[in-house]
Amino acid sequence: MRVSRQKAQKNRDAVLDAAARLFRERGLDGAGVAEVTREAGLTHGGFYGQFPGGKDALAAEAVTAAFAATQAFWEELAIGTKPGSGGALAAIISAYLSDGHRDDPGRGCPVPALAADAARRGGVVQAAFSGGVRDLIDTLARHTPGNTDAGRRAEAARLLATLAGAVLIARAVSGGDPALANTVVDAAKAGMPLNGICVP
Amino acid sequence: MRVSRQKAQKNRDAVLDAAARLFRERGLDGAGVAEVTREAGLTHGGFYGQFPGGKDALAAEAVTAAFAATQAFWEELAIGTKPGSGGALAAIISAYLSDGHRDDPGRGCPVPALAADAARRGGVVQAAFSGGVRDLIDTLARHTPGNTDAGRRAEAARLLATLAGAVLIARAVSGGDPALANTVVDAAKAGMPLNGICVP
DNA sequence: TGTACATCAGTGAACGCGCGTTCACTGATGTAC
DNA sequence: TGTACATCAGTGAACGCGCGTTCACTGATGTAC
Lengths: 200, 200
Description:
Helix content of chain A: over 70%
Oligomer: homodimer
Number of helices of chain A: 10
């Protein structure tokens, strides 16, 4: 049965939201079209009307949405901190390396959750992922101390690698060796620029 | 047809080798039992005689084998460098952040290739992964400067997070934004302890 | 050492299952008058 | 504003396909004599 255009848009958004969460939780191969649409309160039949590009198109849009949400979350964290004080960066790092982020990949950064999948899938998914990483590094660079744009971007890139790597490893070992997971996250925290000065 | 016990062992090893490579290349969901055994020159029927635990058992053993190979490769790199000079660590870092490693996940470190899969799969796979990460960090710590064991281990953990994160991101964006991939890897290189002094 | 036979590593067909995708259909929406 | 009808968002059954796994069978190996 037909629904209003407003309701149709809401339904599409619900599918996208469910996809962005489920893909981060279970991987691009671990969540199917049927489950995603069911989670959005719909059946799978209408899906190809919403996303003519099929699952790949959904995955690409979900990746973009997940990056946008992460970026928005970071900007929200930055509000209320003194500009130039490094407080925004500290807040982002603290949230990124929190237990909450480690244990809730569905609402977290797409990099540790989906980077390997994006690398393998290629096409529109990898393109969306690349754009997301670039925007995320730019956002991080805006809150990173440094003299030049290139320097801030490089530092932000290094930071994201360490943050994503630490959460990636922590998630992988938290079930089999919780102490090791904490070691990795704590080591990453200790190596963050705000805890001292790095002189390359 | 029955084969000799020696040949049977060789066949099992061939399946394990193929699995260790294919799983790293395509992910645990991206390579099937049929393809792995075919790559080893066998049919899939005999597989459950070799691995009664099924695909999960194969994945767990493949993860362990991949970590062991990475560790052996690092130890090989360390041979011929002056002990305590940091030369071994420099060689490991250089190899890890090379284009060759980025573009050949099948023979590379299991962390960027399989950590997300291991986190989701749980069970014996996650247990094998946890053990592999611990051993890898211990190996890295043996070549890391520092005053205490705990300090070396923490530094090694932080190092592995940065290395794995950088390669993970580089692989994900190399198709869509090659310049960004180089930015991330170069930034990780520049942030390595051997290029300067980190004062936490 | 030679022979007869039990063992078992590997084969290939078959199983149920869930996947991504298609399509005829439904019925409320949006529109033309 | 009210009515008639075309549009189309969503439904649910169905498609082929590849997955992990099972199993009856084959025939060379390993063993007992």
